[in-house]
Amino acid sequence: MSQPAGLSFEQAPPFSLPLRFFLTAPLFLIAAAILIALSPDALASRWTPQALALTHALTLGFLAMVMLGALTQMLPVVAGSPLPALRLVARVSHVSLVLGTAALMTGFLTGQAAAYGSGVVLLGVCFVVFLVAAATSLARAVAGVTVNGIRFAVLGLALTILLGVALALLRAGWWTPPGIESAINAHVSFGLIGWVLLLVVGVAYQVVPMFQLTPPYPPRLSRWLAGALFALLLLHAAAPLLPSVAARIVDASLAAGVLLFAAVTLRLQSRRRRKLPDVTLDYWRLGMASLIASVAVWIVAQAWPAWADSDAYAPLLGILFIGGFAASVVNGMLYKIVPFLAWFHLQAQLQAAAGSIPTMKDMIAERWMRRQFRLHLIACVLLLGVPFWPQLGIAAGGVLALSAVVLWINLLSAVRRFIAHGGGFY
Q1: Are 202 and 153 in contact (CB under 8 A)?
Q2: CA–CA distances in Å: residue 337 to residues 210, 256, 421
């Protein structure tokens, strides 16, 4: 396998730096699954302590963990601009994200102010350190569609953190901002669309054509989509200040942009040059289908206010977006990124001839990735029923936990092969 053109692999960070994020993420997915199994009512409403702990286990412990690890790798390679003090930033961000997420979950579940407060402080350290380093890197990066997508995603993350801090102060009773409901909605919107979706959009421009052998995204779309979605998000956050008709137009345009990205991605994947089965492609297709379904659920809520006011609406939307879309795409990316990095660093360290080290496809057995995908798919289907029949949470959580365990073992198998063939961490 040759190195893809246009990427600065000579600036790639040590394998151990992104790997620590990737190997930690499935552990928080296991914790989230156990929480679902032990507290089936966690998905019956968005406001229960269990639901808040579960949401942050998934968004911080799993999604953000993988995404920070991916940016640690991608900014030097794709943008040609390493993070300053890379080793220190990666270590501080990783440790504080792990401890901060665990403490925040504990605070939500127990109501202990000390746990909640320490979680907020640790997460603040994580994101301030990483955001300052990422902003420095992006400021000197060579412009491109992926870099621009990442820039908007990092801005979305910064706004999510600022709103999260405001809500943390509110929860602690230190401050009562005006428009609390609007602040909560903006925190969720910037976190899920401004950070998670826009980062997936930016990364997709690079990894979908490179790893899935598809045609590139249409140039016009890749140039304006991320910026347009971010601008619409800003207008969405200001919706209380807009005329109702204008607010509805903004929301409809935002939904149309999300649907456009999903539809174009599916179209490109249908035109891939190699038609061999690929489990990571299945993860992306599941993710895009779930993204389309989440928009459909939102559209129904706009036309049917009783559905929008129901306890099941927000959990169902969250399951489709976080579990069906984000977790699926991230899972698929892990199965490409980790084997590729293991192969790349093994080749770079040993200067090995072709055939003397495992190929990228040999790093993780295809049959085990396929088995884990089936478990993930079953878990997603079961989770869709939990807001309506909470008793399904026991089965859904159990299957999701098993899927996360198999994911973790599969990623470790790539690391074991890397070490077994003489790879070292430096």
Answers
A1: yes
A2: 11, 30, 19
Q: Is 137 in contact with 75 (CB distance < 8 Å)?
A: yes
**Maximal C-alpha separation, the chain:** 66
Neighbours of 420 (CB within 10 A): 9
Q: Residue 2 pLDDT more than 50?
A: no
Phi and psi at residue 353, in whole multiples of 5°? -80, 155
In one-letter notation, the amino acid at residue 137 is S
Helix axes 16-38, 65-77, angle to 10 degrees: 160
Cβ-proximal residues to 137 (8 Å cutoff; 6+ apart), any chain:
75, 76, 79, 81, 82, 83, 84
Distances (CA, A) of 390 to 40, 237, 393: 5, 32, 6
3-state secondary structure the chain: CCCCCCCCHHHCCCCHHHHHHHHHHHHHHHHHHHHHHHCHHHHCCCCCHHHHHHHHHHHHHHHHHHHHHHHHHHHHHCCCCCCCCHHHHHHHHHHHHHHHHHHHHHHHHHCCHHHHHHHHHHHHHHHHHHHHHHHHHHHCCCCCHHHHHHHHHHHHHHHHHHHHHHHHHHHCCCCCCCCHHHHHHHHHHHHHHHHHHHHHHHHHHHHHHHHHCCCCCCHHHHHHHHHHHHHHHHHHHCHHHCCHHHHHHHHHHHHHHHHHHHHHHHHHHHCCCCCCCCHHHHHHHHHHHHHHHHHHHHHHHHHCHHHHCCCCHHHHHHHHHHHHHHHHHHHHHHHHHHHHHHHHHHHHHHCCCCCCCCCHHHCCCHHHHHHHHHHHHHHHHHHHHCCCCCCHHHHHHHHHHHHHHHHHHHHHHHHHHHHHCCCCCC
Task: Tell me the C-alpha distance between 170 and 40, whole Å.
Answer: 28
CA distance 365 to 362: 6
User: Buried b vs exposed e over 365-374: b needs ≥16 C-beta within 10 Å?
Assistant: eeeebebbbe
Query: Worst-scoring range by mean pLDDT, 166-175, 240-249, 256-265, 272-281?
Result: 166-175
pTM of the model: 0.92
Whether 409 shows a pLDDT value over 60: the answer reads yes
Phi then psi dihedrals of residue 150, to 5 deg: -65, -40
Mean pLDDT over 241-266 rounds to: 92
Per-residue pLDDT reduced to its tens digit, 298-349: 999 988 888 888 888 989 999 999 999 999 999 999 999 999 888 888 887 7
